[in-house]
Amino acid sequence: MLPGDRGLLADPYPAYARLRERGVPHRVNLRSGLYGWLVTRYEDARAALADPRLSKDPRLAPPDWQEAGRGRPLEDRSGLGTHLLTTDPPEHTRLRRLVSRYFTPGRLEVLRPRIERRVDTLIDGLARTSGGDLIGDFAAPLQLATICDVLGVPAADRTDFQQWTTAVVSSGEGDSEARPEALRRLGAYVGELADAKRRDPGNDVISAITAAADDGERLSETELLAMIFLLLVAGFETTVGLIGLGVWTLLRHPAQLRLLRERPELVDAAVEELLRYDSAVEVATWRFAREPMELGGVRVPAGRPILVASAAANRDPGRFPEPDRLDITREDAAGHLSFGHGPHYCLGAMLARLTGRAALNGIVRRLPGLALAVPPERVPWRSSLTVRGPQSLPVVV
Questions:
Q1: What is the pLDDT of residue 174?
Q2: Integer Cα distance of 109 and 113 in angstroms
Q3: What is the DSSP string of 138-205?
Q4: CA distance 347 to 104
Q5: What would the pLDDT profile of 155-202 be if each residue is shown by its tens digit?
Q6: Which of helix, strand or coil describes residue 316?
Q7: Which of 286, 316, 283, 314 is nearest to 388 (CA)?
Q8: 39 close to 296: Cβ distance less than 8 angstroms
Q9: Measured between alpha carbons, how far is 12 from 260 in angstroms, rounded to an integer?
Q10: CATH 1.10.630.10: does it fit domain 6-396?
Q11: Residue 312 in contact with residue 20, Cβ under 8 Å?
């Protein structure tokens, strides 16, 4: 069993349950040549996500792992390797502090009316055509416009940006050249965008952190480019996955969808339960043991690559009663690990929740006849180690 295996994309949970019952982390070998030890139990996963003995820096990995050509070694060759997902405190703390001020509840709340208007406009389009692709015609354009507005990406560049980020995150067969090329193009674009913001700054995140780098406040030029790269890619892909998986799940659970229509005040709880039940971030990004340590009852040598399976942890019956049952009234769903835990907790979690709530509210309020346009087994799934969800979701209205 491998995360991202094509045979398990639609439903990896029975396989995760078998691994979780065995308890200890299990070695997995990926098609890319990378390998690691997979953590599946909730308590082990939560502990690993916050353990300072597990580093985010892939340069601590064994040489054969680094030679597989993925992770930070590849991003370093593109000038994009030093960011929040590949650094540890105090470097990580410094980088995060600089950008976290732009993702506070107060700053994000002002976006709500604009996001809700976009939701209504996109739903108008689905209604006019009696359906379409909920990913390509709704979730992707909604989050693309939102994250690009926050960061300051010009509207004319957004189509190219979406194609590059999809190639960077996906890991399907035959993509050995697609990801390096997308990284190269993204690196070049990020550099051009930073130069443009220096010449003509706006009221956006990239303008602000570009000014900080120029003032010598905290970011070097390399850190600046890598930070912009990470915010663009992570801010887009994970929320698209949240919306796509959320709608897919509700359509497969009509009683829960009906309950949400009858009680729209449950939308906040519904978003948390959907995040728990089927996480768009199936596996957290890599960690590496700084020193020999114990994890999940086994001895972990220094340098061992660790993968935390958030999706498996979120279905652990030791933490969530009846974990395979979707229940949008569940009171403890917010304890899920879909946004991580500890110092690397997702910086964009608030923005993802805000967009996800607006999307579900709009769909529940305005599309009472929404249904899948194809049998569930014909829905295509994206192949990726980290971000999971339908590649497209054909629906009728």
A1: 43
A2: 9
A3: IIHHHHHHHHHHHHT--GGGHHHHHHHHHHHH---TT-TTHHHHHHHHHHHHHHHHHHHHHHS--SSH
A4: 9
A5: 877 777 777 777 766 654 445 567 677 777 877 888 888 888 888 888
A6: coil
A7: 283
A8: yes
A9: 26
A10: yes
A11: yes
Q: Residue 165 is encoded by which pair of tokens?
A: 């980020």
Report the residue count for the chain.
397
352 burial (CB, 10 Å; 0-12 / 13-18 / 19+) is buried
Q: Quote helix, strand, coil % in the chain, to nearest 5.
A: 55, 10, 35
**Token code pair at residue 172:** 């399907």
In the predicted model, residues of the chain with pLDDT beneath 70 are 1-7, 69-80, 168-177, 179, 213-218
Read off the pLDDT of residues 227-266 as tens digits, 9 standing for 90 and up.
887 887 788 888 999 999 999 999 999 999 999 999 999 9
Cα angle 227, 185, 82 (rounded to 5 degrees) comes to 25
How far apart, in whole angstroms, are the C-alpha atoms of residue 310 and residue 45?
Answer: 7
CB 354 within 8 A of CB 238: no
pTM beyond 0.85, yes or no? yes
Q: Which long-range contacts (CB under 8 A, 24 or more apart) does 111-119 make?
A: 111/146, 111/149, 111/150, 111/351, 111/354, 112/354, 112/358, 114/146, 114/149, 115/142, 115/146, 115/354, 115/355, 115/358, 116/358, 116/361, 116/362, 118/142, 118/145, 118/146, 119/358, 119/359, 119/361, 119/362
Q: What is the pLDDT of residue 17?
A: 94
Cα 341 to the center of its chain, rounded Å:
14
Q: Whose CA is closest to 166, among 395, 394, 393, 383?
A: 383
Q: Cα–Cα distance between 38 and 29 in angstroms, integer? A: 10
User: Are 382 and 390 contacting, i.e. CB atoms less than 8 angstroms apart?
Assistant: yes
161's tokens = 């940006």
